[in-house]
């Protein structure tokens, strides 16, 4: 399956390594289903692996993923948060994955950095520390000082990492296509869609210009707030492989000794961090997708600083509305509302509605009358989805992962912190805005414009259909008993629908003007509506032909 000429020519060496690791960690059946037997056995003969016979399958998977490097680690970290896809024995083990690795020696980093900066770092910057202050699987970070005196961090992609990741993504995409075709029990999880999201996220991290833009877009949301801080980007030194940004002097939110010594108001920091995250996700539809403790800082004056913007999540307005309804249903202990959201998210799935209804009511009962722990609630929610054969939309899974991470950080700041309670005012404010009279007016006007646009296209569509029929070289005549009555019914229904659409489109398009204007517009609209309704009543009373 995998042994296409394209793969052999382009990614054969990397495929050889992957197959060998799979065999080495005992995933022989997976290798066989993917058609990699010959490659895997050859690779395994040239490699040595630890004895994994006493390890559980999740443990072996985690060890294999770590051996395969950054692309697979990213995939594993995503799956660790997908309790709607995997059971707790898998998610708990994958949660142990880490991307901290030994740094690349300065001698190997310097040539790439000089190429991107246009000269030696020691000459470009006033000061440059050759020892990285952080090292991850995709990039490592150095501290420096501009000649103007400003302290900055310099983030540098690991040399050669792009080629490895691009090969991995091609092979994983091919593998997802095979898995979706060959494994019916896995196809419902939409592995190809999962791979597209993974590829988009990792490609974003491989382009540090993209990360810089993400930072500035999020910073623009809080341009009028001094207590939410984003680092300044120094574009004159930033390239696809190098990011230079302001160094924020802050304390990690998990360093309680320093926070206490600095007399920080930890409950206030928790509330501000939550407000900022909800503002990004629920209102703006763009949020920090990796709010772990190292990416959130306490700054002087009880300000919150955000760093590291390689992973950004995005939510459409429709998805935000669904999310608001879900949170509202949870806060209001509304099992029917919760079930409605689950069905909306089910897509092409066909869940057992009676079973799902029982699961939704049981979920509400489990979490009613107690202080809600977000991590527990969301994990339970995704477990309910998995047990009812519903796969969560990928964008929401990313948001849920981020919410759980943020909730964990905030609870460390304030053990009594309840993100659901903190989210209440934001949810209520947005629900009112979305479903207020003014919000509904905007929706109605949009519907009217959409209907008018569709009706305007009808003549052209009918003409095109007639042309296509004239071009046909074969005609088919079918005579069915009772067809006259059926045609008449269709004609009446179509006429009613056309009248309704025209009346609705005209009325809704004029509606905004009616709110301000009088006279001729009101008269014309009322007359049209009455004529349309009258015509429909006449058609309703017409008898069918015998």
Question: How is this structure best described in words?
Answer:
This protein has 546 residues and is α+β, with helices and mostly antiparallel strands. 62% of the residues lie in helices and 8% in strands. The protein has helices spanning 5-10, 12-24, 28-33, 37-45, 57-68, 70-80, 88-94, 106-117, 121-124, 161-182, 184-187, 191-206, 208-221, 256-261, 266-284, 317-331, 335-345, 353-366, 374-387, 394-413, 419-435, 437-470, 483-514, 520-541; strands spanning 127-128, 134-135, 139-145, 151-157, 228-229, 242-246, 251-252, 286-288, 296-299, 303-306, 312-314. The strands form three sheets. Strands 1, 2, 3, 4 and 6 form a five-stranded antiparallel beta sheet that branches. A hairpin with a 5-residue loop joins strand 3 and strand 4. Helix 10 (161-182) runs antiparallel to helix 12 (191-206). The radius of gyration is 29 Å and the shape is globular. It starts with a helix and ends in a 5-residue tail after the last helix. 32% of the residues are buried. The model is unreliable at 1-5, 443-454, 473-478 and 509-516 (pLDDT under 50).
Strand content: 5-15%
Got a strand count? 11
Distance N terminus to C terminus?
Answer: 62 Å
What is the general shape? globular
- Total helical segments: 24
Specify the structural class: alpha+beta
Helicity, as a percent range:
55-70%
Report the average pLDDT across residues. Answer: 76
What is the CA-atom radius of gyration, in angstroms? Answer: 29 Å
Pick out the low-confidence regions. Answer: 1-5, 443-454, 473-478, 509-516
Major sheet description: 5 strands, antiparallel
What is the oligomer described by this structure? single chain
């Amino acid at each position: 399956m995998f042994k296409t000429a394209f793969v052999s020519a382009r990614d054969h060496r990397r495929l050889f390594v992957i197959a060998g690791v799979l065999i080495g960690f005992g995933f022989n059946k997976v290798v066989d289903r993917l058609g990699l037997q010959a490659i895997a056995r050859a690779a395994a003969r040239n490699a040595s692996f630890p004895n994994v016979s006493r390890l559980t399958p999740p443990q072996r998977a985690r060890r294999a993923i770590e051996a395969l490097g950054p692309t697979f680690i990213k995939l594993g970290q995503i799956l660790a948060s997908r309790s709607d896809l995997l059971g707790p024995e898998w998610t708990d083990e994958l949660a142990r994955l880490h991307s901290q690795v030994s740094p690349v020696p300065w001698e190997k980093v310097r040539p790439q950095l000089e190429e991107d900066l246009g000269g030696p770092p020691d000459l470009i910057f006033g000061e440059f520390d050759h020892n990285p202050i952080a090292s991850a699987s995709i990039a490592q970070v150095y501290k420096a000082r501009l000649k103007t005196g400003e302290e900055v961090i310099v983030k540098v992609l690991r040399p050669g990492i792009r080629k490895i990741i691009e090969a991995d993504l091609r092979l994983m995409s091919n593998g997802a296509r095979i898995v979706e075709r060959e494994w019916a029990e896995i196809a419902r999880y939409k592995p190809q869609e999962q791979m597209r999201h993974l590829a988009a996220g990792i490609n974003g991290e491989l382009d540090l210009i993209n990360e810089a833009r993400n930072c500035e877009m999020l910073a623009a949301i809080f341009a009028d707030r001094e207590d939410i801080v984003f680092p300044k980007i120094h574009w004159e030194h930033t390239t696809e492989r190098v990011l230079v940004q302001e160094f924020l002097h802050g304390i990690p939110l998990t360093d309680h000794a320093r926070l206490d010594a600095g007399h920080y108001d930890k409950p206030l920091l928790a509330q501000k961090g939550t407000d900022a995250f909800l503002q990004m996700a629920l209102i703006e539809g763009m949020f920090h997708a990796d709010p772990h403790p190292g990416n959130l800082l306490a700054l002087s004056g009880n300000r919150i600083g955000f760093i590291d913007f390689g992973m950004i999540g995005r939510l459409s307005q429709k998805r935000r509305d669904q999310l608001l309804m879900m949170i509202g249903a949870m806060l209001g202990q509304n099992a029917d509302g919760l079930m409605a959201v689950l069905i909306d998210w089910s897509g092409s799935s066909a869940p057992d509605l009676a079973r799902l209804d029982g699961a939704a009511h049981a979920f509400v009962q489990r979490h009613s009358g107690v202080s809600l722990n977000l991590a527990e609630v969301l994990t339970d929610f995704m477990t309910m989805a998995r047990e009812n054969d519903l796969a969560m939309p990928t964008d929401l899974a990313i948001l849920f992962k981020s919410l759980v991470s943020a909730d964990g950080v905030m609870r460390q700041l304030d053990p009594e912190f309840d993100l659901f309670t903190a989210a209440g005012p934001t949810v209520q404010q947005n629900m009112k805005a979305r479903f207020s009279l003014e919000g509904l007016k905007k929706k109605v006007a949009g519907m009217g414009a959409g209907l008018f646009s569709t009706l305007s296209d009808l003549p052209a569509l009918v003409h095109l259909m007639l042309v296509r029929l004239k071009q046909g070289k074969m005609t088919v005549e079918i005579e069915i008993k009772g067809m006259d009555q059926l045609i008449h019914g269709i004609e009446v229904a179509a006429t009613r629908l056309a009248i309704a659409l025209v009346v609705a489109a005209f009325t809704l398009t004029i509606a905004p003007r009616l709110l301000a204007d009088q006279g001729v517009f009101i008269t014309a609209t009322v007359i049209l509506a009455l004529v349309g309704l009258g015509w429909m009543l006449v058609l309703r009373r017409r008898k069918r032909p015998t």
